[in-house]
Structures are given as C-alpha cells and as structure tokens.
Design a protein that fits this description.
By secondary structure, the chain is α/β, with parallel strands linked by helices. Helix content is about 30%, strand content about 25%. It has a nine-stranded mixed β-sheet with strand order 2-1-11-10-12-13-14-15-16, sandwiched between helices.
Length: about 500
C-alpha cells in the first residue's frame, strides 16, 4: 500500500515536505490530514463530494490534499492569484462544499487555524482524486474529473509504477518542485513522491537562483521543470559562471511546453544527460517519455508512448503514415472526462474513440513523437499552415534571447501574418536595428514565409506559472498594428 499513512507507521520522523526552514514529517502529515478528513466529514462531506484548496506552496496544502485523497473526496486546487470572477466560476462549477483557504471571508471557508479545533466524524478510507481545471488558454477552464474507484487508499499503483520504472524514484528520492503545487504536474509528481516515502522540497515561487541553490542545499535527486525555467537559469550565466550540477542530482524531468532543441542541448551540456522529457496533460489520456540519450538521437522529440498507443490523424480522422504531420491522438484505457462539459470530451475524440489533447505532430519510423504546435495556435497565412513552435525554437537559438512567443495577427491580404515578441538579456538601445538583426539570423533557419512580419520587445513574456504563454491575450493585444514593433528585415508586403 503506497501512501503517506503507511510510510508514517514505519518512519514517522522522515521528512515528507520541506519549504524554507519548515519541515513536515510523515507522522505529522498522517495525523493532521486524518484529523482534517474527520472535520470535513463532520461538515457534511461524503464520498464523491468536492472540496477546494486555495493555499500556496505550504505544508497545509499537502495536509488538505491528503485529507481529501484519503476520504474519497475530489479536491480542486485553485490559484490564490485568480481574479474573483475566475475563482468564483471554478468554485461554482466544481460544486465545492468546503474551501480550504487562508481567507476566512470566502464562502464555506475553513482556514488552517480551524482544522484541529472542531468536531470530527468518521469517514470512508478510500481513494479520492484531484479535479483539475485546464488552464483556459483557449477558452473558459473545464474541470477534468475521473470516476472514483472506491478502492482503499494506496490501491492505485499507476503513477507509482511509472515513477519507479521511468525515473528511478523511491523512498530515497528528494524531489524539487519549483512550480506552484496547484498545477497538474507539480501536484501529481509531488504526491507520487509522498506515496513512495520520498521528500518533496518546494519553493514559494520560482526564482532561478533560489532553485539552483536548493539543488545543492537539499541534495536533490530528482526535479521537475518547464522550459522557461531552463531559460531563466541559463540567463544567470550572463552575470558569472553557472554552478556545477550537484552529484546528487541524477534526474531532471521537464514538460508543460515544447522545449526548443537548442535550449535543451544547452541544458544537457550543463547538467549532463540527466534530462527526461514527457508529454501528457491535465486530461492524462496518454503519456510519452524520452531520456537524454534517445533525445540526442531524435532531437526535438517528446519520446515514445508509454502505456498507450499514438495515432496521427488527418482532419477526417484518417490515419497518416510516419513523417506526416496531423492531429495527435492516444489510444488508451483513459478517456476525456470533463465536468459539466460532455461536449468538450466528444470534440476531443476521434471516430475511432481515440483522445487528443489538442496538439499536432508526427511520428518517425521508430515511433518517436515530435510535436509541431497546438492545433488552436496554427497560423494560416496565405493558405499555408505555419507552426509557431518551430519559429520560437529558431529565435531561442539566439543566446541573447531569454524568452519569446510567436503567434498570428490579422492581415487584410494574407489573412494572418506572423508576429513575435522577444525578451532579451539586455534591453536594446536601437530596437529597429536589433529587430532587423534577429530577423536576419532567423532567416537562415526558417523559410521566408515563416519569418515574423514584425518583432516587439517586451520586459517579460507573459506566461502562466505552468510555463504556457497566454497566446489568446497576446493575439488580442497585438491585433492593433501600432503595437507590433519593428520590421524583422522582411518586406511589409511579402
């Protein structure tokens, strides 16, 4: 049986979670989450009900999550940074009976000070589940809600087996999670580590220098990142030598957004061949994996399928052969399960019953998948499909560029043209000249029709904490031609 309460029976003083100078032991996690589960039961929560968790990276976050997980409840992690209308939409849509939060003024709030001071009741000790809301980059977020098994706590071995088989995780794992725990990957990896009896180390918020220090200070063995974090850490090299990767650090896992090949090569050169990449999503309808050695042989790939089968389909759901680009579908035992939105699940399924997470890509002859972009962000310019991820990878091959985003903007002649925003390590004195230089370099890497019409310079590329760019917002902002910046050495009429 893999869960923190079983770990606590044999190793109550082992660290389950570390944040700054705070340590939560397995004994404390088991005791406090059990008490909170009883409090939730006394408040009327029963198997299949939902509680919301509005807490930052903290011991209380894990106590709340395990209280729900051990008592057959769904738990919905919600960012404290959401605007009230966004927050209220999720609370209403999820039907949360209780909100575990620091803000006592929220409806149905139960603040940490009240968790161990009140009536408790018996509860069923069965597996609950997370209920995560998609990021909403392409519309209003929807909750991903899977049926509960009703099995005893510790009965679900899938993520534990994957962590062991692919990444070598176990009771001796010290796992650094520098991202917010309310997102799918940090949450699920961290809770899997705690099922195994390992230690989770977190940051209150991502900071490149603090993350590198944490690797050394805590003798981290495994870590989890998004590509933007790699860019931020590598950028520290402009101010002095980068630290050597600690000998303890043997596995760095990344996902969440496409990783430009040049950026990944720089990380492998720095840390060694310890990078592992996977492709999945909140919906968890499929999973791929690739280690550094296979990636160097198949640069740009996100790996081969694990526990599922990949199908590349055209717009009529016909299968495409190796090398041809189409929509990426997975055939597996999992399917889409969107709360209050069955139509979204149907629209993300093929006629064969396969499921997609909305990406496009191709398989090579060896079964390695390469993603070209999100289907919803494909730029159609003069009737030709242009995939932003390819152009972003070309831009990020320039060591002066810390981050970038490429997207389509309206054009009366071409329908859409390519627009880029760029974040530099140093702000340019002459923006027009710098834009032309960047465009000239990029022209050696991508076809002329893929070059950005214009480049705008920004202090920081706006991203979600998951690493994903809010491209819908950018497309709205830069629909105004006056905001689009400077020509990238390309004719305005080409």
């Amino acid at each position: 049986m893999s869960h923190p309460h079983a770990i606590a029976e044999n190793a109550p003083d082992r660290a389950a979670f570390i944040l700054d100078d705070e340590t939560l032991t397995y004994g404390e996690l088991a005791r406090r989450s059990t008490y909170l589960a009883g409090r939730l039961s006394a408040l009327g929560c029963k198997r299949g009900d939902t509680v919301a968790i509005m807490l930052g990276n903290s011991a209380e976050f894990f106590i709340g999550a395990w209280a729900a997980q051990m008592s057959g409840l769904y738990f919905v992690p919600i960012s404290q940074r959401l605007a009230p209308p966004e927050r209220d939409y999720i609370l209403a849509d999820s039907g949360a009976k209780v909100v575990l939060a620091e803000d006592a003024d929220l409806p149905c709030a139960l603040v940490p000070d009240q968790w161990e001071d009140g009536e408790t009741a018996e509860f069923e000790r069965v597996e609950g589940s997370d209920m995560l809301y998609t990021s909403g980059t392409t519309g209003r977020p929807k909750g991903v809600k899977r049926p509960l098994s009703g099995a005893p706590l510790g009965s679900d071995p899938r993520r534990v087996k994957r962590a062991r088989d692919l990444f070598g995780m176990g009771a001796d794992t010290i796992f650094l999670s520098p991202a917010p725990l309310y997102h799918a990957a940090p949450l699920r990896w961290a809770m899997t580590v705690q099922r195994l009896g390992g230690t989770v180390v977190a940051l209150r918020r991502f900071d490149a220098r603090a993350a590198l220090e944490a690797l050394e200070t805590h003798r981290v063995t495994h870590s989890q990142w998004v590509p933007t974090m790699f860019s931020r850490m590598l950028a520290l090299g402009a101010h002095g030598p980068l630290p050597t990767n600690p000998a303890s650090h043997i596995c760095a896992i990344h996902a969440g957004a496409p990783c430009p090949p040049e950026l990944k090569r720089r990380m492998i050169d720095w840390w060694g061949p310890i990078l592992h990449e996977y492709y999945s999503g909140t919906e968890a309808v499929g999973f791929t994996h690739i280690d550094s050695h296979d990636w160097l042989a198949h640069p740009g790939s996100v790996g081969r399928a694990y526990g599922s089968t990949i199908h590349i389909l055209d717009d009529e759901d016909n299968p495409l052969p190796a090398g041809e680009t189409g929509r990426v579908f997975f055939e597996s035992s999992a399917g889409h399960a969107y709360h209050n939105a069955p139509e979204k699940g149907r629209s993300a399924s093929s006629r064969q019953g396969y499921a997609t997470m909305g990406d496009i890509g191709f398989l090579d002859e060896d079964g390695f998948l390469t993603l070209t972009d999100r289907a919803s962000f494909t730029i159609i310019s003069g009737g030709a499909n242009i995939y932003p991820a390819e152009i972003e990878a070309g831009l990020l091959a320039n060591p002066d560029i810390v981050d970038c985003a490429v997207f389509g903007v309206p054009d009366a002649d071409m329908g859409q043209v390519v627009q880029a925003i760029v974040e530099l390590s140093e702000y340019p004195v002459d923006e027009a000249e710098r834009a032309a230089e960047i465009g000239e370099k990029l022209s050696r890497q991508v076809a002329v029709n893929k070059l950005p019409r214009r480049i705008a310079f920004v202090d920081r590329v706006p991203r979600l904490e998951t690493g994903k760019v809010r491209k819908r917002d950018l497309m709205e902002t830069y629909a105004d031609p006056a905001r689009r910046g400077h020509p990238a050495r390309i004719s305005e009429t080409s």
